[in-house]
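Sequence decides. Our protein:
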Amino acid sequence: MNEKMRRKSYVIEAKNARRQRLGVRRLKYTCHTKNIQVKITGDDDQKHAPEDPKSLELKKQEKDVGTSMEMLSVSFSESENEVVLSSGSVAGSDKGGGKRGSEGLGARGGYGVVSLKGMRKEMEDAVRVEVGFGKFDFYGVYDGHGGPDVAGACRERMHEVVAEAVEMEGIKGKNDDKGDAIDWETVMEECFGKIDGEVSDIAAARMIGATAVVAVVTEEQVVVANCGDSRAVLSRGGVALALSNDHKPDRVDELKRIEAAGGRVITWNGNRVLGVLATSRSIGDHYLRPYVISKPEVTVTKRTDQDEFLILASDGLWDVMSNDVACQVVKKCLGGRMRRVSIHDEHQVLLNVRSRTSEAAAVLADLAMARGSRDNISVIVVDLTKTS
């Protein structure tokens, strides 16, 4: 065997070993519409750069699909890889709850939630969905670090604290059915501050924390509050609009704030506050105050007829996928029947799922794993299409 062939053999062996070590490395999804078959292939992250829209292989083929039920095939190479999958017909938290009524703020397809442990040893993410809480819908993704306790506390309390604050605004005469009169920036800052104070009672909270991105959807607005590097993205007329801005230590304004408080950003496996934390804002992490703060940035976006869907996700998704690519994937999933199949594992679990938003969330999570994400991955997809 010559030198060239020997090197090629080493490369193939290395790639195969890596695929076995990381579990699922190649997945195929086929989204069907009446006349189009769209094939989305996720492969090795070295071949498909995270920010490259070309990583979606779109092939149009004339095809007529006669099936009337979506079939979702979920496959994972590790039995301990936990999955939380909820359809839009379920209200409450990620644990489930009551059924959503037809009065749900004009969202035609409801919502879908997927939360994967991924390649991590422990699940530190938490998600919460409360539809019709008060007069609005609430969605939250919490990405814990150092342990799951702070993220779990956010899951159990954040929506309640927001509901209490909205009710208080009503007592002040500032609340209405559409939420237009509410000072959402003040409300969210107070709510995040209250939760941050509550988690101080957790013994470990001084040394652990969680990022948080929450969305309150009203009839007329989408309110997003973000603290950390989870993210909310709105698809409007085919364009991906970021409704939050990641709090990274090297972000110019965040770097200035940290240094003004006497802190430093040290490059150690990425940019980190004091060489420790890779996000500049979080709930908890009290040992890093005043450099790391819990104050969220809040955006209020007026809803339009062009709004299609909203994605909330932890950085396990966004570290390996751009806003544009994520929106392309979801749009294809919501636009037609879909069969989602992993070709790597022989053990498959078939689920009948009526909600395409659940399918879209599942595809995003699996595609993130195929692209090399090594973090927990939590995704919420909300259909914002208004009913006529």
Remarks:
- The helical segments are 3-22, 149-171, 184-198, 252-260, 315-318, 323-334, 356-370.
